[in-house]
Specification:
The complex is a heterodimer of chains A (479) and B (176). By secondary structure, chain A is α/β, with parallel strands linked by helices. Chain A has 18 helices and ten strands. The radius of gyration of chain A is 34 Å and the shape is elongated. With 176 residues, chain B is mostly beta strands. Chain B folds into two domains: 81 residues; 73 residues, no CATH class. Chain B is built from two helices and 13 strands, in the order βββββββαββββββα. The longest helix of chain B has 14 residues. Chain B is elongated and about 60 Å long. Chain B starts with 16 loop residues before the first strand and ends with a helix. Classes of the chains: A alpha/beta (479), B mainly beta (176). Chains A and B meet through helix 12, helix 13, helix 15, helix 16 and helix 18 of A and strand 6 of B.
Amino acid sequence: MRYYDRHPTGTIISRLTQDSGGVQDFLAYGLPWIASNAIMLVGVAIAVFAINWKLALLVLLPAPLVSILARKLWQRMHLAFHRFWYRWSRFYAISSDALSRVKIIKAFSQQPNEIERFQIRNADLFGASVYAEQTWATYMPVIGFVMSSGSLFVWYFGGLIIVGHGPLTIGGLMAFLAYLGMLYGPLNGLTQSAQWMSRALTAAERIFEVLDAEADTEKGHGNVVPENVRGEVEFRDVTFGYEKHNPVLKEVSFKVERGQMLGLVGKSGAGKTTVINLLCRFYDVDEGDIFIDSVNLRDLDLSFYRGRLGAVLQEPFLFSGTVAENIAYGKPDATIEDIMAAAKVANAHDFVVNKADGYDEQVGEQGGRLSAGEKQRVCIARAILHDPAILILDEATASVDLETEAQIQEAIARLIEGRTTFAIAHRLSTLRNASNLLVIDEGKVAEFGTHEELEEKKGVYCRLLDIHRKTSMTKALSG
Amino acid sequence: MDNPETIKPSEPPELRYLDPEQVRVFRTDNGQIRATIAEERSIIAPRFLRASPLRDPDRYISIREADANGKEVGLLRNWRRLDRESRDLVQAELDRRYMYPILKRIVSTKHIFHMAICVFETDRGVREVTLRDIRDNVIYLGASRILITDAEGNRYDIPSFDALEPNSRAMLAQIL
């Protein structure tokens, strides 16, 4: 997860498409081309040495200088391509960000700023591309000239041998020079392949960087597969920070019994989402332990455990595909009857059947063809069908009409019944419904108890509740 | 908006599957369609909707009330097991609602900017259609069935791409 936190999606997509395309091109076309040039080079070299080995050695005189220049070129091109790919991925990231958030950009009238950002990145990319080409265009003619200067030695010393009636005829010298021409072709080709190779190696490095990114939770990956997950959760002295020197949670301890609902309360940035991230084992705790049914979370088989988790998030996320496919996302082998039953419980069945294509209706990219309330209910149906033992509920605050709101609330109430639920609470109704409330303040457990108990305490929770009530009242009065 | 009242989960609703032998669909004397479920219910001008019109069109027909809420009375797993009169009426209602002319041949195609204007020969006659954002308006079903939606929202069914004559295949491949 840390890898994804650090790298924008556009950058990763660029590595998956551009970089792998570069490596693929090199492997498919570059390697055979290099191999055929190398074979040609060896064959012609044998012929040249057979005609006159002394003259052949003269051809190699510029080789040390060529080697030094090629080495310098290689280093510079490697650096140039690194810079180019880096800027390309930044360019790609900003473009994909802008395209996927086009509504927000327009709503905030940010087109000029976005265009400016695009132009800056575009100019960066252009600069990197020009640098790479300039480096290539500067070194290549020099290398080519130095390399072919060997033929001048051949003309000079070959001529001397013929004039001095040495062991070489004019025909022999002509044949030697003809072969030499054939030698320079592949040699030039091989030098030029340095650019191709350098580009491909840079791309390969970036791909391996992704492949070698170690999953944060790979260490201590357990293999305990219990018969089922009952849903008893305990955090014991948990300390964690996305950067280890800056802990977000400090010695957090609490316990949730099976089937209970825990409301997570706290100011923005207090650490509520971090509790959920650790519960999902997106990250491993730095200190302390998390126990699920008295088994350390590190010892549990991760894919088994995550299969027993479910989530309904504030921003309902749907994949491109049909309504049925989205509901069955966590249980792909579900029958249409299972899907419809889940949709019915989630108050989604009626609106789905009324769509032109019913359960076969395409939801569009990120569910764009459905309304906010419809998306939310499809997500609830997905969670119901998945039947998780532990449910994470980040309450929807999307603006929906009162009737839809009531339907969503009713569906959520059915969903959480009998499941251990961690709710990031935004509503008073949720706070009252919760078996216990965990109030987090500056990464520490400030208070823990029922709504009534915490109200009596007159502490942090009470203060937050006051703010919450006042805000609700202001909202209600302003209409 | 916060509702301070505690929402208690109501009894989870269940789908009601109807026994085809208990369902009768018929026309009344004044020509209206009426459905009866055993002896318990009678619905005037019911609506018949396919739950999965593309993947499973012959199963799961939702019978719904005619009013604005269109409350579901029940689902028929296999409506072909209805008695003959009921079956014919349900079939006619479904055909009316899910009318997909079957494309038999593409007579011609013309590209104007990002649109394609085509002349389709269908089982319901020849028609000129405009296709826009074609990639978003094509559904591929099974091995070679294709559904195309035109700019006006009309849908055309190609039961088998492979069964089209070669010229139409070539033109369709160009459009897609």
